[in-house]
Each structure stands twice: as structure tokens, then as C-alpha cells.
Design a protein that fits this description.
heterodimer, A: 317 residues, mainly alpha, two-stranded antiparallel ribbon, 2 strands, 72% helix, B: 284 residues, alpha/beta, 9-stranded mixed beta sheet, two-stranded parallel sheet, 36% helix, elongated, phosphate transport (chain B), signal (chain B)
């Protein structure tokens, strides 16, 4: 061999991989072994997660549908008479309560959260923004039981003073607690969405002579819309599944909420109150599982919605 | 060469200390085991007190106690999650609302006194059985109808499955039903939640067992008798029940020793009395 053949041409790179060597433990078979093992590990981890999810779904569904052996479909979904001790399983009041509570929470939280996000992304000086953002991130991590306890001991007596009610437990109290809980989530994600709007949009808007207010509300917010909707849906998913804080302030009474201050119950609060007290093999138990399945289905739908929105947002930009 | 000497000496020291400690412990008790207790939140103060005393005597016994509601006690014993199910009624027999638990033995541990309690701002201090029935069933809705000031009554109830609820319904309301709906009606999950609700809600009435009664609430007399040990013993106060530790079959090993410790005269007349329970021997 002469010295020249030692210089490997670029085309020859990887040749040692393409050509089978005589040694069983050469670089090529070793790499192939590790690559395929790694691939199998990754795929099986993904399959495992899917199996767990489907396992939960199927278990909840299978146990849940056993309700209909004794309770009619119509009664469960369209009756508000929840009196399991006497064989009445009308879950409409919980379903209504869940949607009413989530809706009310968003009505309270979204405008404030978006304004906070605008303030953080557009108005505040940099040093204040850099202090506020980590604080907002910390707020997300406060355990919900803390919010619930504050609601029980501070908010409810305040509501009683303001409204003159004897018992202020109900949708409004729960919605205020939840709104405070989801506020940092929605605000921070909206903040990121607003910050991601290219500077040239703002420059163009100012160049056309618009005020700061017009720039923010006519240009920046519409441009960040899909990100803000994404934030709202994430906040909504958190509000729908929240249990601890809600159970402390909603009153836990199985009746349809005909006012903001009627003690009532939602899917989560009713499940957590009763699941420990019911017979294992009873319609009551199955009905609670079915309510859990409903909750799971709603959350999954929301997650799917978030994914679809994300795709749409990606295409638009 | 000397590098290994120091760690080795430390290890030897630790081993000899551990052995010494173990021999001291085994001098106190050779009982080993793990006891899981679940069930009544009314009995929880007693269980926790007994747990810390018993563990001092038997350091090798691990006890974990938690409370959800009475019915969860025998149910978790049946499922095999717990060794002891604390419950406020004899769950080896049928009671209204709950079937008996076959194969479980009820070991009596304490007499629990239940009191009707009201928020501090309520001026009424005595109610008759009839008045209690009417208040809790929703017929009387204003404190002025029972001799108080003109204010709506807020009824706080425990959730279904609570032993305090079973006892209160049987003995204070003489079996009459509770209301279940209304603007001034709410339900709470545990004795602790009930305590918070009564303390913080003006014009509220509820019921709780004596160990949870604080000076931030008012224990009401029933038919002229205040909820005290004296009145239970002389028969004028009727709202009390016996708390049980349910076990799968007869208790054995550490579980048996623990139950016997609670039933012993020393615990019954000592810590149990201090917690405002009444010794079993006193009422039988």
C-alpha cells in the first residue's frame, strides 16, 4: 500500500459500515444491534403509554356502562334527581354543573388573563417583566388545596358579607377560586403567544399612524389568536378536572344550580365525595365510574382540540 | 494501610450500636408487624393517640392510620387494604342504609358522644328532639321559631356513609330523615370539614363527635341535657354510640395486641378519657 491510499475520499466515508467485516463484533453489527435495541425500547415505551391510556378508558367505560343494567339512559343523562339511596341516578345536574362552572370560570379568567399577558408582553419594562414571569410560573405550581382553603376561609365569608346570603357556597365561589387558579396558566401561555408576534407587524402598524392601543388590539392580539385560544383550552382542561379546590367551596348538594349561590355539585366533587362510601358492586359505584368516564372523555376531546388548533396555527404562520 | 481503618472502625461502631439498640427494643417487646387502619374520622383522634403510645412500647410495629368515613373502614377490610376498619356502628350487623359485613368481627374500642353544634353567634342553647327533627328535615328554617334571633338556619350535614351521620340520625333524630336539598343546606366530607364549616358559617347547625368540639362552636343541649360524660352515664343524654374496630375474623398478632392495648384499663381510663371519649366499661 502506498501512502496515498490512506487518504479516504469523502465517498468512501461509512464504507466500513456498508461492507460486512469478518469479525462478528465489528463496528457495523455493534451499531446495528444498539440501534435496533434502542428502537425497540422507544417503540415499546410508546406502546406502553398507549396501552395504559386505553386500559383506563376501557376499564372506566366497562364499569360505567354497567349502570345501564338498572338505570335507563334517559334517566342518567336527562334527570336531575340524584338520590342513590333510593335508586335514583339522574346525573344531569352534575354535567350541567361542570359545564356551567367551567364556562363561568373562563368568563371571569380569560379577559383578565389576556390583559395580564398584554401587560407582560407589550407594556411592562424589561426588569419588571423578568421578575413577573417567574412569579407567574410559580403560581401555576401552588397546590389546588391551598386555593380551596383560602376560598373557604376568606372568599366565602366575603361573599356572604357582600350578598347577604346565609350560605355563599356555590357556582360563583367555585368559579372565582378556579379563575384565580387558571389565571397564571392562561396568562403565561398567551404572553408567549403575544411575544412571538413578529416585531415588523407592530412597526408597520405604528408606521401607519396607529396608537399603541390600536396596535395591540387590532394587530397584535389577532395575530396571536391561535396561541391565546390554545392557552384558554389548556386553562379550561385544568378547570374541568379540578377537584380539591371545588369540593371545598361548592356546597356538595346534589341539586340543580338555579342561582350562582345555590349549593350544588359537579362531576369531580361528587365523585370524590361519594366514591369512598359506596358498595363495590353496586349501581351507585358504576354510576360514579360512568361520571368519571364522561369527565375523561371531555378532557380528551379538549386535548384533541388543542392539537388541531396547534396544527392550524402552524400552517397559518 | 490506615485508609481503611477509620471507616471500618465506624462500621463496627455502628453495628454494635444497632445491635445494642435492637437488644434494648427486644427487651421492651418482640412484637413485629404492620397494621393499616382506615375508616371513621370520628375515631381518628383516638386511633392516633393509641398509635403513638403503642409504637413507643412496640417499636417494631408499624402502624398507619387514615380516615375517610365509617363505611370505608369495613369496606377496606373486606378488600384487604386495611387490617382494621374503624367504624362508628357495629358493622357485623345490619343498620339502616348499610348491610352487615359477613366474616368480620366487631371489636368495641370506645364510647363516642355526638353533639349537635351551632356557630358561636347562635343564641339558642337547648333544643328538643322534635325541634332537632324539624330543623334537620327542613321544616323549621328560622332560629326565631326555636327561641333564637330572627335568622335563617344553615344546615350542615355529613355525607352518606358517615358513622356520625348514622348515629345522629338514629339517636338524636330518632330515625327521622334528613333534608337533602335547599339554598341553606350543604354537605361535608369529614369531621374536620364539619368543624371548619360550623366555625366559619354564621347561623349554622350541624353535629360532630365530642373530641372535635372546640370553643369556637357551641355544643347544644338536647332535651335539657348537655353532651357531657356525666349526662351519658346518668342516662339523660342519649346521643352516643360505640365505636368498633372491624377485623377479618378474630384479630391476631400485632393487630390483636393493638386492639387489646386500646381496650386495656390503662388506656381506657387515661388517654381515651382525656380525648373526651368514654371508657367502654363505664356504660355497660
Amino acid at each position: 500500500m502506498n501512502a496515498q491510499s490512506r487518504v479516504i475520499a469523502p465517498a468512501e466515508l461509512g464504507n466500513s459500515l456498508r461492507q460486512a467485516g469478518g469479525d462478528p463484533l465489528d463496528r457495523r453489527s455493534r451499531l446495528r444491534f444498539f440501534n435496533s435495541t434502542f428502537k425497540v425500547l422507544c417503540v415499546s415505551a410508546a406502546v406502553f403509554v398507549c396501552l395504559v391510556l386505553f386500559g383506563i378508558l376501557i376499564l372506566m367505560f366497562k364499569t360505567g356502562v354497567m349502570t345501564f343494567e338498572t338505570v335507563s339512559f334517559k334517566e342518567f343523562f336527562f334527570s336531575t334527581n340524584w338520590d342513590p339511596e333510593n335508586g335514583h341516578f339522574g346525573a344531569l345536574l352534575f354535567i350541567f354543573g361542570t359545564f356551567a362552572l367551567t364556562g363561568l370560570t373562563l368568563v371571569l379568567a380569560v379577559p383578565i388573563a389576556v390583559l395580564i399577558a398584554v401587560f407582560l408582553a407589550e407594556i411592562t419594562p424589561v426588569w419588571l417583566r423578568d421578575t413577573l414571569r417567574p412569579i407567574m410560573d410559580l403560581l401555576v405550581g401552588i397546590p389546588s388545596v391551598v386555593y380551596g382553603y383560602l376560598g373557604l376561609t376568606i372568599l366565602i365569608p366575603m361573599l356572604r358579607e357582600l350578598t347577604g346570603r346565609d350560605l355563599a357556597d356555590g357556582l360563583l365561589a367555585a368559579a372565582i377560586v378556579l379563575a384565580i387558579m387558571v389565571l397564571p396558566t392562561i396568562a403565561r401561555i398567551s404572553d408567549d403567544a403575544i411575544s412571538a408576534v413578529p416585531k415588523k407587524y407592530r412597526d408597520a402598524s405604528y408606521a401607519l399612524g396607529s396608537t399603541r392601543f390600536q396596535t395591540i388590539f387590532r394587530v397584535v392580539l389577532p395575530a396571536a389568536r391561535s396561541g391565546i385560544v390554545y392557552a384558554v383550552i389548556l386553562g379550561m382542561a385544568r378547570a374541568i378536572g379540578e377537584t380539591m379546590a371545588v369540593v371545598m367551596v361548592i356546597g356538595n348538594t346534589p341539586q340543580l344550580a338555579d342561582s350562582l349561590f345555590t349549593p350544588t355539585a359537579v362531576l369531580t366533587s361528587n365523585i370524590v365525595m361519594q366514591i369512598t362510601s359506596v358498595e363495590f358492586d353496586s349501581t351507585w359505584n358504576y354510576a360514579l365510574y360512568l361520571m368519571g368516564f364522561l369527565l375523561l372523555a371531555i378532557s380528551l376531546l379538549l386535548i384533541v382540540a388543542v392539537r388541531l388548533l396547534q396544527k392550524k396555527g402552524a400552517k397559518a404562520s | 494501610m490506615k485508609k481503611w481503618f477509620k471507616p471500618a472502625a465506624l462500621v463496627a461502631l455502628a453495628v454494635s450500636l444497632a445491635a445494642g439498640g435492637a437488644s434494648v427494643a427486644s427487651a421492651a417487646s418482640s412484637l413485629k408487624g404492620k397494621i393499616v387502619i382506615n375508616g371513621s374520622s370520628a375515631l381518628l383522634p383516638l386511633t392516633l393517640q393509641a398509635k403513638s403510645e403503642f409504637q413507643k412500647l412496640n417499636p417494631k410495629v408499624k402502624i398507619s392510620a387514615s380516615a375517610v368515613s365509617s363505611i370505608a373502614g369495613p369496606q377496606s377490610v373486606r378488600k384487604g387494604i386495611a387490617d382494621i376498619g374503624a367504624v362508628d356502628w357495629d358493622a357485623s350487623t345490619d343498620v339502616p342504609g348499610f348491610k352487615k359485613f359477613d366474616g368480620q368481627v366487631a371489636n368495641p374500642v370506645a364510647v363516642t358522644v355526638f353533639a349537635a353544634v351551632a356557630n358561636k353567634n347562635v343564641s339558642v342553647s337547648n333544643l328538643t328532639t322534635k325541634q332537632l327533627q324539624d330543623i334537620f328535615s327542613g321544616k323549621i328554617t328560622n332560629w326565631k321559631d326555636v327561641g333564637g334571633s330572627d335568622a335563617n338556619i344553615v344546615v350542615v350535614n355529613r355525607k352518606f356513609g358517615s358513622g356520625t351521620r348514622v348515629n345522629f340520625q338514629l339517636k338524636a333524630l330518632e330515625g327521622k330523615d334528613f333534608m337533602t336539598k335547599g339554598d341553606n343546606y350543604k354537605e361535608t366530607g369529614s369531621s374536620g370539614d364539619m368543624k371548619t364549616a360550623i366555625e366559619t358559617t354564621p347561623n349554622a347547625i350541624g353535629y360532630i363527635d365530642l373530641p372535635y368540639v372546640t370553643d369556637k362552636m357551641k355544643a347544644l343541649s338536647i332535651n335539657g341535657a348537655a353532651p357531657t360524660e356525666k349526662n351519658v352515664l346518668n342516662g339523660t343524654y342519649k346521643v352516643w354510640g360505640i365505636g368498633y374496630f372491624m377485623t377479618k375474623g378474630q384479630p391476631t398478632g400485632a393487630t390483636k395486641a393493638f386492639i387489646e392495648y386500646i381496650q386495656s384499663a390503662k388506656f381506657q381510663n387515661g388517654s381515651l378519657k382525656k380525648l373526651k371519649f368514654i371508657p367502654l366499661a363505664a356504660v355497660k
